[in-house]
Amino acid sequence: MIHDRPANDVIPDECYENTSADINEYRALVAESTTAAAELRLLVQSVRELLAGASDAAPLVDALVEAEATVGDRVFLQLVALIFIFFIALLGYRFVAGRLFSR
Question: Cα–Cα distance between 88 and 101 in angstroms, integer?
């Protein structure tokens, strides 16, 4: 015989007291797990769609990088021109000031 108990042995009522609470906890856990799995599935699907759409965004990103480089080059050249104009004005001021105030 597999069991050591006799077949007519009755399980005490204390063993059944907490089973309904345990089952409700397990049901809640299963429900939360199901919700989490569904949300995870949606997240994975969204990531796949984003990765699939990344190739569509490549030309846009390239155009933005090129425009940024163009603007950056233009700002740099304008700053160089401004510094050049400042030093020309400084030299002109020294020349004029030397001529006017040397007397």
Answer: 20
pLDDT value of position 83: 97
**Number of structural domains found in the chain:** 1
Q: Spell 53-84 as b/e; 16+ CB within 10 A means b.
A: eeeeeeeeeeeeeeeeeeeeeeeeeeeeeeee
Low-confidence spans in the chain with pLDDT less than 50: 1
Torsion-angle region of residue 72: left (phi > 0), alpha (psi -120 to 50) or beta? Answer: alpha
Residue numbers of the domain that contains 18 = 13-101
Within-domain flag for 90: yes
> The pTM is what?
0.42
pLDDT in tens, 85-97: 999 999 999 999 8
CA distance 39 to 101: 82
* 27 inside domain: yes
